[in-house]
Amino acid sequence: MIKYNNMKLIDIIKEAEKNKTAIGHFNIADTQMLKGIFSSAQKLKVPVIIGTSEGERDFIGVKQTVALVKSLREEYDYPIFLNADHTYSFEKVKEAVDAGYDSVIFDGAKLSFEENMKITKQSVEYAKSVNPNILIEAELGYIGKSSKLLDEIPEGAEITDEHLTTPEEIKEFVESTGVDLIAPAVGNLHGMLKGANNPALNIERIKELREAGGIPMVLHGGSGIADEDFVKAIDAGIASIHISTEVRVAYKNGIKIGLQENPDDIAPYRYMKEAVHHVEKVIEKRLKLFSKIN
Ligand SMILES: [Zn+2]
Questions:
Q1: What angle do CA 244, 249, 251 make, to 5 degrees?
Q2: Which of 241, 186, 244, 191 is nearest to 213 (CA)?
Q3: What distance in Å separates the CA atoms of residue 208 and residue 170, rounded to the nearest whole number?
Q4: Alpha carbon of 229 to ligand 1 centroid (Å)
Q5: Which of 17, 22, 165, 270 qualifies as a cystine partner to 290, CB 3.0-4.6 A?
Q6: Measured between alpha carbons, how far is 252 from 120 in angstroms, rounded to an integer?
Q7: Predicted model pTM
Q8: Considering 11, 30, 58, 85, which one is annotated as catalytic?
Q9: Which residues, in sequence order, are CB contacts of 112 under 8 Å at separation 6+?
Q10: Domain boundaries, the chain
Q11: What is the 105 CA–ligand 1 centroid distance (Å)?
C-alpha cells in the first residue's frame, strides 16, 4: 500500500486511468456491507470507494458513515474513500461536504442542461471553499435511478445513440462548472435487467467524451454489464465504476442462506457471516476485473 501513501482521491483516480484500470465504487447500507467490501479490497490491495445514496446515508447516519470509513482509512492506513452518491439538491450536497465526505455527486441529470450546470457549479464552489480536496461529480444524461432488478428499461432512460451525452455538451459543461469528475450517458443503465445482459455500451462515444471533457469519467449502472464491455470501457477512458444492484442481490441472498442455515441461532455475528461472505465474493470478482488482476 506504500504506493498510495497519502495520495489524494483525485490522484488515485488519475493514476488508475493512466494504468488503464478503474477504481471500484460500491454502495453500502450498513456495516456488514462495508466489512465485505473492505476485506476484498484489502485482499487485492487496491483502492476502493464506498458510496451511499441519500437513502443509504440517512439510514446509517451521515456523520456515522464518515466516521466508519475514516476509521478504516486511519487504522489500516488504507486508500478507502467515501462518496455521497446521487445527491439531488444543493442542501444535501452541503450536508455531505460539511460532514466530511471525500466526494459528492450532484445529480441534475433530470434537470435542464442550464439548471444542472448552475447547481453543479454552486456545489463545486462550496465544496472547494470547505476543502479543496473534496471532489464533485456531475451527471450528464438520464440513465434511470434505481438500484434494483428491472423488468424493462426505465422510462426516459437515454440509452439509444441519439440520446447519449455528446462531446459538445460535456466540453461546455466541464468548462463552465469546474467539476472534477463526470458521469455520462453512454448506453449504461441504473439497475439490472432480469434474465438478460444490460444494453451494450457505446465505446467509441466514451473515447470522444473523455477527450472533449478532459477530466476523469465515471461509469454508473455497472451491474449487469458484460465483462468484456467493462474492459473496453476502461481502456476507452472510464476511471471509476459504480456497482450497487449486484451487491444488494448478493447481500440479501447471503442473509437468506445465513438464516436458513442457523434457524435457531440469534447471534447476528454468526447468522450474518454468510451475508458478508456473499458481498466479498461479488466485490472480489469486480475489483479483479476493474484492476485487471488475474
Ligand atoms: Zn449511479
A1: 95
A2: 186
A3: 10
A4: 17
A5: 22
A6: 34
A7: 0.95
A8: 85
A9: none
A10: 2-291
A11: 9
d(Cα 42, Cα 229) in Å, to the nearest integer? 26
90 class by beta-carbon count within 10 Å (0-12 exposed, 13-18 middle, 19+ buried): middle
Q: Which of 13, 79, 49, 42 is nearest to 244 (CA)?
A: 49
To the query of whether residue 264 is one of the catalytic residues in this protein, the response is no
* Model pLDDT for residues 30-64, shown as the tens digit of each residue: 999 999 999 999 999 999 999 999 999 999 999 99
Strands (E), 88-140: 103-106, 135-140
CATH topology of domain 2-291: TIM Barrel (3.20.20)
Query: How far is ligand 1, taken at its centre, from the CA of residue 110, in Å?
Result: 13
In angstroms, the CA 16 to CA 20 distance is 6
Using the predicted structure, report yes or no on whether residue 110 has a pLDDT greater than 80: yes
Query: What's phi and psi for 186, nearest 5 deg?
Result: -130, 30
Residue partners of 254: CB distance under 8 A and separation at least 6: 274, 275, 276, 277, 278, 279
CA of 161 to the centre of ligand 1 (A): 20
Region of residue 178 (phi > 0: left; psi between -120 and 50: alpha; otherwise: beta): left
Residue with cell 438520464: 142
The model's pLDDT over 162-207, given as tens digits with 9 standing for 90+, comes to 789 999 999 999 999 999 999 999 988 888 888 777 778 999 999 9
Phi, psi of 288 (to 5 degrees): -65, -45
